[in-house]
Amino acid sequence: MNVLLDTSFILDCLREKFDFTLAEEYGTMLLAEEVILELEKLAAGRNPNSDLARLALKIIDKNKSKFKMIELGNKYVDAGIVAYAKDKNLLVATMDSGLKKQLRKILVLRARKKLWVEN
To answer: Given CA atoms 67, 24, 4, 39 in this order, what sign does their dihedral have?
Structure first.
């Protein structure tokens, strides 16, 4: 199975000091170019998530062999994730409540210490 990582999942894991690359236990980790762009925009700004986004980019770069890069083909990342997920049998790793409502299979961080699949 494949696991598509969303920006919210990556940032929340880092906020809770949890290694988001452990999602590989559920399958091949997919990372969308659009998610990378979101992280880069956050990293370049001055907001509460800037430091987390920079750390995320470093971790992704250091572990790039663990990720399969994809393109969603939609400038709206959430809409692209929903469309991509509906065409494939995969888990979406997200903490975004809007995405959770639209998807069947999601991977979330529970109790700040373990990954959990919700249907």
So the answer is: negative
